From TrEMBL, chain A:
Keyword DNA repair part of the UniProt annotation: no
Name used for this protein in its record: Cation:proton antiporter
Keywords: Cell membrane, Membrane, Transmembrane, Transmembrane helix
Subcellular location: Cell membrane
Domain of life: Archaea
Major subcellular site: membrane
Any single Gene Ontology cellular-component annotation: plasma membrane
Protein source organism: Thermococcus gorgonarius
MF GO annotations: monoatomic cation transmembrane transporter activity
PANTHER family referenced in this protein's UniProt entry, alphabetically: NA(+)/H(+) ANTIPORTER SUBUNIT E1 (PTHR34584), NA(+)_H(+) ANTIPORTER SUBUNIT E1 (PTHR34584:SF1)
TrEMBL record, chain B:
Source organism phylogeny: Archaea, Methanobacteriati, Methanobacteriota, Thermococci, Thermococcales
The protein's name: Na+/H+ antiporter subunit G
InterPro entries linked: PhaG_MnhG_YufB
Transmembrane segments: 6-27, 39-59, 65-90
Any one GO MF annotation of this record: sodium:proton antiporter activity
Amino acid sequence: MEEASNVSRYLYTLIVLFLIWLALTASLDPQELTFGLILSAIVAAITYPIFTTRGLANLHPKRVTYAIAYVPYFLWAMIMANLDVAYRVLHPKKPIRPGVVHCKTVLKTNPGKLSLANSITLTPGTITLDVDGDDYFIHWIWVPDEVLSAKSEEEHVERASENITRPFEKFLKVIFG
Amino acid sequence: MNALAALGEALVLIGTFFYFLSALGLIRMPDVYNRMQTSTKSATLGSLGVLVGTGLWAVGDGLSWAWFVKATVIAVFLLLTNPISAHALIRAAYKSGIPLWQGSVVDKYREHIEAKASPGAAESESTEEGGEE
């Protein structure tokens, strides 16, 4: 993971904090904007070493576009997840076949792994139990036949990753590198 | 009453329906992992619906757009933090040795922990005991 210069990291933190201030106050009064800028500058000076390691490179247009495209994709997956939950909870026979499966990811950075874990938790039938390096351990409410019947460990990992992590990785790989 | 307020009311209704599903899931599911599974997802989407719906409803009733913006900020904050708390709870449940439901089919995490602990035989034994309780 490449380290950006301190100035670029500081500016990135400042921009993010100022955007949050804008949304929280929801006003464009110049007095509010000035005070928000001063407060963001102070907070950014204290927190930028732990907030980001890549600085302004995070605002690369391609990354921002993918991040915006990811929002409706993710919300759709989340709505499907809730319909799935509704089906399992309301069905009189409770169609569940839970188990803990093992997945691998291709993501390298920590923010990427965090957002993948969050996305997994909020999408159909899966919840992240633990992350250890590249390995994800995921509690699945309905382990499908093709994963259950896998002969070897590699096949199991391959099939589980195909179902769980691949759909998000194509976005997150670009957003978080 | 206008279109915006009606949309807000519909979203609040959908949100409360998912809250209801979340509470029902807590009663119906057999073990802590499945309960976590059903309650986290429904409660998160339910909160999103209720918060965004409240914002739209307020704007539709003639209040300022600040209502909608602030409600959306809260919704985004909840969306980012809810899965992390669920992950922390489910991991703590596993580490403190709560067993999976007897109908569970695979447990790769147990194998992973044992493989990691196998150099020190004493440690592997203690994790096994913790899991059986």
